[in-house]
């Protein structure tokens, strides 16, 4: 089997996920452990329950699964997991019925989807499509992967919103994905954030379905912009600006529900145009982006609450959709020249 591995893939990627090597893998979804040091039958059954029914076989007579580990969590549109066998293994799930991304963190995994082949290593991942036969004929004994299953409907709905028109059939991604680029680093940052959040007991994802859905959509949107596929050129190509009424439609939505965490695809879907077309329109009409305008409106409401109320800064921030205290403070200071806490103290006469 030919190995389509760029030279850069032989070096571990400089990303947060690179720390999830065999020695550090206990920290990946540590609170979502499904099975450990289990028999092949137990691993196979759990893979079928969380991902896909598959033929799973060890390739060594002296197979040792004592270091095997499967952690996984099922969300609205995605299933996130970590898988290590600890022994040379073959996995054959066939046609997946979903899109799927494997992010290797150690070892080497031969990966096939239809007639395409790649050897996945740290720095080179694999993106699988729903209808082609998928098989991983060889996992090295030291290999481990982050495994991301993504709903077929979610990927295609997101792409249609970004393009502003329906897509016909499956999105055909290239199989091998270079995870050492700056674009990949951004996407891996979203993956890490989502993994950290789902593994945090009592975190925002447990309290807010909206926050969970927002992060999942960011992951899907990022994949569509990261990996080559048959719609990528159309997604990235410049388009003529939308008519002013399209901009007004989005402004009306934002002004009506300023607390919502709309993504660019949400706004484009509401406007009935592609995301890039909407961005160009906003830039020409208002000299800002749709998400920049949304943030401006959120900040205005947050400032008004800080000036007139006695709630904590974080209570106000969360109300208006700012889920990261540091970013809220940064945006606020850039806009108003003072920190949110300074505004709150001033309003109370301190």
From TrEMBL:
<protein>
    <submittedName>
        <fullName>Helix-turn-helix protein</fullName>
    </submittedName>
</protein>
<keyword id="KW-0804">Transcription</keyword>
<feature type="domain" description="HTH araC/xylS-type">
    <location>
        <begin position="248"/>
        <end position="346"/>
    </location>
</feature>
<dbReference type="InterPro" id="IPR050204">
    <property type="entry name" value="AraC_XylS_family_regulators"/>
</dbReference>
<dbReference type="InterPro" id="IPR009057">
    <property type="entry name" value="Homeodomain-like_sf"/>
</dbReference>
<dbReference type="GO" id="GO:0003700">
    <property type="term" value="F:DNA-binding transcription factor activity"/>
</dbReference>
<dbReference type="InterPro" id="IPR035418">
    <property type="entry name" value="AraC-bd_2"/>
</dbReference>
<keyword id="KW-0238">DNA-binding</keyword>
<dbReference type="Pfam" id="PF14525">
    <property type="entry name" value="AraC_binding_2"/>
</dbReference>
<keyword id="KW-0805">Transcription regulation</keyword>
<dbReference type="Pfam" id="PF12833">
    <property type="entry name" value="HTH_18"/>
</dbReference>
<feature type="region of interest" description="Disordered">
    <location>
        <begin position="1"/>
        <end position="22"/>
    </location>
</feature>
<dbReference type="InterPro" id="IPR018060">
    <property type="entry name" value="HTH_AraC"/>
</dbReference>
<dbReference type="GO" id="GO:0043565">
    <property type="term" value="F:sequence-specific DNA binding"/>
</dbReference>
<dbReference type="InterPro" id="IPR018062">
    <property type="entry name" value="HTH_AraC-typ_CS"/>
</dbReference>
